[in-house]
């Protein structure tokens, strides 16, 4: 391609989600509501796990960090998108786009690994309950968190320099609502072979490895549950795992489309829909799924409310 058709780093323009004038206001209201509900729901989840001693277990310790990651990565995308709609423009500087890309890849990568390793927690709880305190000790929990953050950081430090150092074509119009990898790749000119190879390796590491841990863990769980004679035990085991499996299917399903399917299967509209699903909707669904389907969280919420009422009556 002629070098004159390439430009050096400058501002980009995000087309955003609100392109239909008739529905844009309604869509803005929905996204705004989802954002604030996700922030509140995840914040409440973290607060309950921190304040209630009954939730001071490895599973809820990991769940509190999952909520923290959800808060962080939805905050890297949605506020900018909402502000662009209110200001009537979608300009983002090269530095801001790079920062958003870096933070997004780090937080999402950390969530991929954390969700995968949380399946191991469920495996130990059901298949090796007597050794659970040893196999899921405080030290092991911190190792799981450190591994998740390391995996996310590795994705960011590998992909961000390669992506943002690519020569971009004359059009700096990003047909998306944030600086996401597949969209940025479509803007790039020249040889993308190195980038695509690194992207593939990172996707294998970020998606397939954690997903393999999930498959292996739940295969062991299913075998153990099948061998149980107690119907009540089977029901309890299923209830313990079902919330996590729902979150895994929702999150990994959308991400597999975004990062594993060839570019020929992608369209701007599909990319936006799937990105909305796992970057905006999933952070809201995570705490709702875990709270609505989890008796411990519901009871913890009731205890906190009762404690607040008791404190108010004393005054």
TrEMBL record:
The chain crosses the membrane at residues 26-51, 60-81, 101-120, 140-159, 197-225, 237-261, 273-292. GO terms for cellular component: plasma membrane. GO terms for molecular function: G protein-coupled receptor activity; olfactory receptor activity. Residues 41-290 form the G-protein coupled receptors family 1 profile domain. Its main location: membrane. It comes from the Eukaryota. Keywords: Cell membrane, G-protein coupled receptor, Membrane, Olfaction, Receptor, Sensory transduction, Transducer, Transmembrane, Transmembrane helix. It is found in: Cell membrane. It holds the Pfam family 7tm_4. It is a multi-pass membrane protein. The keyword Membrane applies. InterPro entries: GPCR_Rhodpsn, GPCR_Rhodpsn_7TM, Olfact_rcpt. Putative odorant or sperm cell receptor. Belongs to the G-protein coupled receptor 1 family. This is Olfactory receptor. It comes from Muntiacus reevesi.
